[in-house]
TrEMBL record:
Residues 1-25 form the signal peptide. The keyword Zinc does not apply. It comes from Penicillium canariense. PANTHER family: NHL REPEAT-CONTAINING PROTEIN-RELATED, SMP-30_GLUCONOLACTONASE_LRE-LIKE REGION DOMAIN-CONTAINING PROTEIN. This is SMP-30/Gluconolactonase/LRE-like region domain-containing protein. It comes from the Eukaryota.
Length: 327
């Protein structure tokens, strides 16, 4: 997910932000599944295939990659034209994924409004088949996305982090419009334009992080993806990026400059699941997704190697995917 890249600003934010310091989940183990060779790499989004392979998008280059967690080998699947970055990713149907691509300045993480296109990538064949699903010229800075199946036609919901809104896109027809817009989704004025960021659906409820607003929210949805009730703040007071979501609404939220993943229960109880401010375990955590490794449930976490906010002010590393055992 998108994050700041101004170190002086991060220094201010790290000073201002507070994170609940509840007990760590002490039985977790962290291991690196794959790490790129170059500092400056930035993994943005993640999806896990039915066969267990991991798909990742990258802010630093317009590419989609696949990683085999058993062999720890990675391969480039596709390079998207007319873009500098890939953003959100989600599965539309078995083996077919939606991927967002657009122009993002890596130095500032400021996106070029009107540059974003939603693609489909069909992985059911030996060679991936990519095609444009829909360009969204009104989009300002697209980020996380999720598939919503709420009793009507399936809809692709897409966060627009600068606009402070959620787009709904019908993957069958290409029709799109704004489904949700709320002040909680807008960026904080005077800070980098990063509002609503990670989004996930459980049943007919949408959960989302809002980065500079420092709120994790949920809202019941109508069949068409519009709000069916008031927006509820589940947890607040910490920077939030991407998230993985359990069916009961328990969220595992990446905190990017804080180098952690937080566990947030449906009642809002918040605890540190893995990492800490001075740790390199999940340095610059950007997104997360559940998977299974040899039959055991794990949490995969992506990073940008603390590119936005170096650990202890000095340490950065190449972007990586790590595996965290669940407890």
């Amino acid at each position: 997910m998108l994050g700041f890249s101004s170190i002086p600003l991060w220094g201010l934010l790290v000073f201002l932000l507070t994170i609940p310091q509840s007990a760590l989940c002490t039985s977790t183990t962290v291991s690196t599944i794959f790490q790129f060779p170059n500092i400056g790499s930035w993994i943005e989004g993640i999806a896990v295939r039915e066969n267990g392979d991991i798909l990742i998008t990258r802010t630093d280059t317009p590419e989609l990659w696949s990683i085999n967690p058993l062999t720890k080998q990675a391969s480039l699947l596709y390079t998207f034209p007319n873009a500098t970055s890939t953003v959100g990713i989600t599965e539309l149907s078995p083996g077919i994924y939606a991927v967002g691509a657009g122009i993002v300045d890596l130095a500032t993480t400021v996106a070029t409004a009107g540059s974003f296109v939603i693609w489909t990538v069909d992985l059911r064949f030996l060679t991936p088949r990519a095609s444009v699903l829909k360009a969204i010229p009104e989009g300002q800075s697209l980020s996380g996305m999720t598939l919503y199946e709420g009793g009507g036609p399936p809809l692709l919901l897409i966060a627009d982090t600068k606009k402070g809104a959620v787009w709904r896109l019908d993957p069958r027809t290409g029709a799109y419009s704004v489904a949700l817009s709320d002040s909680s989704m807008l960026p904080v004025e005077g800070l980098p334009p990063i509002g609503i960021n990670g989004i996930k659906v459980s049943g007919r409820t949408l959960y989302y992080t809002s980065s500079t607003k420092q709120v994790f929210c949920r809202v019941a949805l109508n069949t068409d993806g519009s709000a069916a009730g008031p927006i509820e703040v589940v947890a607040s007071g910490f920077f939030q990026d991407g998230l993985a979501l359990k069916p009961d609404g328990t969220a595992y939220i990446t905190t990017h400059p804080r180098n952690t993943v937080l566990k947030v229960t449906p009642s809002g109880e918040t605890s540190v699941f893995v990492g800490n401010l001075n740790s390199t375990a999940v340095a610059g955590s950007t997104d997360a997704q559940f998977g299974f490794y040899w039959g055991q449930e794990v949490l995969y976490v992506t990073t940008n190697g603390a590119l936005s906010a170096p650990v202890n002010g000095t340490f950065t590393e190449p972007a990586k995917v790590v595996m965290v055992t669940m407890c």
